Amino acid sequence: MSAEAAAAPERTDVVDLYLKHIGSGRAVMGRVMGSMAEVRSEGVWIHADDGRRFLDFGGYGVFILGHRHPAVVEAVHRQIDTHPLASRVFLEPVAARAAQALAAHTPPGVDYVHFVNSGAEATEAALKLARAHGRTSVITTRRGFHGKTLGALSVTANDTYQTPFQPLLPDVTQVAYDDPADLEQALAARRDRACVIVEPVQGEGGVRIPRPGYLSQVRALCDAYGALLVVDEIQTGMGRLGTWWGVDTEDVRPDVLLAGKGLSGGIVPIAAMAATADAYAPFSRDPYLHTSTFGASPIACAAALATVRAMEEEGTVARAAELGPRVLAAVREVCAPYEGGLVREVRGRGLLIGIEFAEEQAVGELLLELIARGVLVNHSLNSTRVLRLTPPAVVEDAELDLFLTTLTDALHSTADRMSVRPPR
Ligand SMILES: Cc1ncc(COP(=O)(O)O)c(C=O)c1O
């Protein structure tokens, strides 16, 4: 028995504890996934309590640096040994340096940073900032995902998650993604009082990639109709698309940019709302306007600072740009025999790749087939037919090869189980 197997509670106990104290739904899901509990991680690997290890091509987009990147771990250890949480009475240097480090990579002029603890909180901060500017009418995109706290959920366009919690924020309008004409119509009816929130590529929406020029058009429309533009880069940012931010490909400067997931270095949860001086002014003037006890904690900021530095030193963004097209081409090749049948389309940008299936069932089947073979991937919360791959930029060629052979086998078994023959 491995050390972690000896130290961890019996596996059945974990399921039982979930049943009794966390929730039956999660417990049942855990059973379906094989009843393993994850207990250790490093690089691209997650280790379970039964001694098995899993190649992590999922992680909901968090692990651009893989698991337990040594530089981030060391910075966090150091911070624990010195000053993990602040009094919030004095100024705190790590938050200041983390803001400076992040602002060095945000679009020019997006210089102010408000740190929070999760992506949804970054959305909340942006929605409140918009209101402070009188931009009370919010325009979001269909299938857009921005988090699940009450305000964020109001702009997360998915009935499944919204319906049980209605009424949500008033005056939220959904427009079609990648459709400037639809956006213009909505903006024209809300001159000088709208806030637009949009993702450069819809991640949870099923890796939807807009046509080139879309973000520039959104920017121009926001300018024309006096709207505040919030670009949600929580999933697409921090190198995920092969650029620091999705907006970089079109040189678009949002008023507000949201970051999260990868900013944590995969170690300590942290997210951020970055903004231009004009947009940020209400928060800048009054530091008590929007606060949270743990926001901008030294320990989380140490992780963020070390993450940005590690990405700079290791050329993570360039690596994602180089690796992404290779992974996409290879996944396309694996899926090619099933296209027109089981598989509808494989699409991606950088290290955000989606496989769209003809049927929703295929996503669940393939996910389980991959788990059985030691690979983790994700489904898409706002697009049930799309399986999502978000590999770390630190993945080696041998691990990529292992992923591709595993995907080939798992896809074959899925097609067999669903009695779908390759059309060619
Ligand atoms: C684009 C986007 N925005 C916001 C969120 C919410 O982030 P969190 O889950 O950290 O609250 C997510 C999470 O998947 C996301 O993909």
Shape: globular
The CATH topology of the largest domain is what? Aspartate Aminotransferase, domain 2
* Overall SS class: alpha/beta
Task: Look at the structure and name the CATH superfamily of the largest domain.
Answer: Type I PLP-dependent aspartate aminotransferase-like (Major domain)
The first-level CATH class name of the largest domain: Alpha Beta
Beta content: 15-25%
Largest sheet: 7 strands, mixed
The whole-number mean of residue pLDDT values reads 95
Hetero ligands: pyridoxal-5'-phosphate
- Specify the CATH architecture of the largest domain: 3-Layer(aba) Sandwich
Question: Low-confidence spans: pLDDT under 50, at least 5 residues?
Answer: none
Q: Largest sheet, order of strands side by side?
A: 4-10-9-8-7-5-6
Q: What order do the SSEs take from the amino end to the carboxyl end, as H and E?
A: HHHEEEHHEHEHHEHEHEEEHHHEEHEEEH
Query: Can you tell me the number of structural domains?
Result: 2
- Count of alpha and pi helical runs: 15
Bin the helical content: 40-55%
Roughly how many Å is the radius of gyration?
A: 22 Å
Number of strands: 15
Distance between the termini: 46 Å
Topology:
Blueprint: H1 3-7, H2 11-22, H3 24-32, E1 38-42, E2 45-48, E3 53-56, H4 70-82, H5 93-103, E4 112-116, H6 119-132, E5 137-141, H7 150-155, H8 159-162, E6 172-175, H9 180-188, E7 194-198, H10 214-224, E8 228-232, E9 256-259, E10 271-275, H11 277-285, H12 298-314, H13 316-335, E11 343-349, E12 352-357, H14 360-372, E13 375-376, E14 378-380, E15 383-389, H15 397-417
Parallel strand pairs: 3-13, 5-6, 5-7, 7-8, 8-9
Antiparallel strand pairs: 1-2, 2-3, 4-10, 9-10, 11-12, 12-15, 14-15
Bound molecules: pyridoxal-5'-phosphate (PLP).
